[in-house]
Amino acid sequence: MSYEVLARKWRPQQFEQVVGQDHVIQTLSRAIQTGRVAHAYLFVGPRGTGKTTTARLLAKALNCQKRGQNPDPCDKCDSCREIVAGNSLDVIEIDAASNTQVDHVRELRDNVRYAPARGPYKIYIIDEVHMLSTGAFNALLKTLEEPPPHAKFLLATTDVHKVPATILSRCQRFDLRRIGIKEIVGRLKEIAKAEKWKVSEEALLAIARGAEGGLRDAESALDQIVSFKGETIEEADVLGVFGLVSWSTIDQLATAVLMGDAAAALKTVAELDEGGRDLQRLVQELLGHLRNVLVWKYAPELADSFDLTASQLDGLKAQAALADAEKLLRVLEILTEAANQARFALSRRTVVEVALLKATRAATVVSIDELIQQIQAGPAADVPADPPAAARASASRPPGRQEVAHLKSRWPALLGTIAETAQLAAPYLKEAEPVRVEGDHVVLGFDPEFGEHLKQVDTSRTRLAIEKAIGRELKRPVGVKFVLEDRPRAETESPARSSAKAKACPDAPAPFARASTKKKLADDPLVRKTLEEFGGDLIDIRE
Question: Are residues 389 and 418 in the same domain?
């Protein structure tokens, strides 16, 4: 007797044997039991997920002579045996890839009128139906919409977007999903036990990962590895034959990326490339692994969908603790771009190495937002204490003068806060300055030269915005007063005028007002902390 490959030998013969498509099997079984079987079905899904198998099972069940109320075929009657053997006169399988012309469909349309030879239905299974030509689809339309009562059409395709909408609207559509790793491992384990093969759990996981959701691919891979290595299979055998990468290697590489260890990442890539591993597949699996890390950070309850063992899940949790979500998103963007580039690159190793270098940097580099948060978190704790003389002078000041000095140093920042609520008044407040504190009121002084600005800011909306901003700064409720007061011209000269003078007389010294503002900013704790973090100097002030 000739050898029969696993994919054919273990093809499901009962609905309950179909793996990973419970939503389809339940609907079809219910339709058979209640007599609500449609005249046309379309099975859509990736390769190896059970489209043609499900169509054959449905055909067997419909024409089974001893089925009764059970939706499963008996596999014993003449009709079932003929369908399994492929010589049934009532079940006609058509390969659309080989019968694309309109004449083939016209022949089908002519023959469908004749009654079935044995069973109650004449069933047409059209595989890869998207390969039909436009003329063939048009010839099929009328028959598909109004077939004879004894005719059933079961269509299967991997590219449903190529099927015309007129055909789709005449069929009940079933989308078969990719089969999960755990389900594939369970099926392979059942096959290995029945065949009396010793296949380790790790080897089965490696085969299932390589199948990418296709059970037929997994069965073919198991068949091949047994032919190559014998009846005792370990993970290393699977990885060596198919060029796959072990989960532990993916885990180590992910850890190196998240910790910013570029040397370790490059060393791993070099070892895998020299070992003949598929680097494009490496990027895809690393991408999927880090995707799981990101999902765990946001939704740990979805861990059951990761298809990982308990120990693997523990490792993933540890990596999630190392990773920042925003950085992880950037790493995933880099790897996604690399996965697309690797498909067409002449040197995949170069593409992968550059992507990993970018990823390790993205995983560890400090963003501007993080720096700002660190600076704002506690500037007082990191800023050096005032010199003793300055501290004695500060202690000798009355409380009101201390508050005024503090408000003057913080005035540019306060203007930004006020502008969030009173945008129209903010430009006029640049010419004002806190001059004194009178009880529960802060007095803002304007130079008489800018007296017209006072009218623009003396409104209830602006007053409320100023009082809230100053109150938060002083940590107590305050009111605000506006006054016109003479001050030295250098202190009140507007930045625009100072800039104009500087352009007119480039050799002239900078105005005192600009130097004074620069000193205020230099003494601001937040500015000082920022300069220390970046190792910078305050060179110029621009508004």
Answer: no
